[in-house]
Design goal:
Elements lengths: L5 E6 L2 E6 L10 H15 L6 E6 L3 E3 L8 H5 L7 H17 L4 E5 L2 E3 L1 H7 L3 E5 L3 E3 L13 H9 L1 H10 L3 E2 H7 L4 E3 L4 H13 L3 H14 L4 H15 L3 H11 L10
Parallel strand pairs: 2-3, 3-5, 4-6, 5-7, 6-8, 7-10
Antiparallel strand pairs: 1-2, 8-9
Helix pairs in contact: 1-3, 5-6, 9-10
């Protein structure tokens, strides 16, 4: 697949997507929104990809909406109505990430601002460089949190801290994000790629169907009552118990050797 704003490579069970508009800290233009969604949909159907790293080139992770994209409209004295852009482009991207039956590791190298912060929050796990920061930039330009930030942020760090980030729009440094559980790990910048890749490699070797189902259960747990989650767990276990990977896991345990999971 040919992309102009991102890079995609798949090897050793791991798909690496790299945001590639470094001059504008990987701000989202229309091409990047569409290409990113296409990349996730290509990964969904490719058995060679069992885990994903979402990384970025340059010194920023993603600065959110490219504020130059609609300059024409502002200069003409008419601000664009942004609801449709969200419905048609950002929301499908966030849903594609959450519905992807494969784990996504965000490798957060620098600032993740606005919809770029939302993008980081939509990953399953986040490893951050100690230079990274998270910024709910929306309020700075008179907008409201979007692209899933209002869903993920309070669930990750609690209502009061989410309100603080959203209202004050001050950057949260990686070290604080680690304290609050917003990221899983913080590493020096030169170790970010290898740490994210090592984690994804580990995920790629786990029982693929069980990982996909665990992600479904986590998604459901975010917004469903206990009864529904218990039922989903029972359905999921009915499926997982019939996989080769489950048989292999038990066999390997009994034979005191590491398992080889084949993803079926
Ligand atoms: C940028 C951007 C950018 C263009 C840096 N656009 N060029 C909104 C609308 C539509 C529908 C859906 O939802 C949304 C959601 C949103 O995402 S709203 C939030 C949009 N993002 C922002 O408001 C963040 C704007 N950027 C910043 O505040 C700063 O750039 C941050 C704090 C991210 C980084 O600051 P610095 O490290 O000081 O970098 P810088 O400001 O010098 O930026 C470097 C270059 O990147 C610079 O270009 P230049 O040609 O001067 O070197 C910036 O203009 C460009 N850039 N963000 N969003």
């Amino acid at each position: 697949m040919d992309f102009s704003t991102i890079l995609l490579q798949i090897a050793d069970g791991v798909a690496i997507i790299t945001l590639n508009r470094p001059d504008v800290l990987n701000a989202f233009n229309g091409d990047m929104r569409r290409e990113l969604t296409s990349a996730f949909s290509a990964i969904e159907t490719d058995d060679a990809a069992r885990a994903v790293v979402l990384a970025a080139n340059g010194r920023g992770f993603c600065a959110g909406q490219d504020l130059r994209e609609r300059l024409g409209a502002y200069e003409g004295g008419q601000a664009p109505v942004l609801g449709e852009t969200l419905r048609q482009e950002y929301n499908p991207l966030i849903l594609a990430m959450r519905r992807l039956p494969k784990p996504i590791v965000g490798a957060i190298n620098g600032v993740a601002a606005g919809a770029g912060c939302s993008l980081a929050l939509a990953c399953d796990l986040r490893i951050a460089s100690d230079q990274a920061s998270f910024l709910q930039a929306f309020m700075r330009i008179g907008l409201v949190p979007d692209s899933g930030s209002s869903f993920f942020l309070p669930r990750l760090i609690g209502m009061a801290r989410a309100a603080e980030m959203m209202f004050l729009a001050e950057p949260m440094p990686a070290a604080r994000a680690l304290e609050l559980g917003l990221v899983n790990q913080v590493v020096p910048p030169d170790q970010l790629d290898s740490a994210a890749h090592a984690l994804a490699l580990k995920l790629a070797q786990l029982p693929t169907k069980a990982i996909a189902q665990a992600k479904r259960q986590l998604n459901l747990a975010l917004s469903s009552p206990l009864e529904a989650v218990l039922e989903e767990e029972a359905n999921g276990q009915a499926m997982a118990s019939q996989t080769h990977d489950h048989q292999e896991g038990v066999k390997a345990f009994l034979e005191k050797r590491p398992p080889t999971f084949l993803g079926r």
